[in-house]
Amino acid sequence: MPITGDYLFMARMDVDPAHEAEFNEVYDTEHVPLLSSVPGVLSIARFKRRELKLVLGGKLQTLELDDEPAYTAIYELASPDVLVSEAWGAAVEQGRWPGRIRPHTTNRRHVLLERTPCAPTVGALSS
Question: pTM above 0.85?
Answer without folding.
Answer: yes
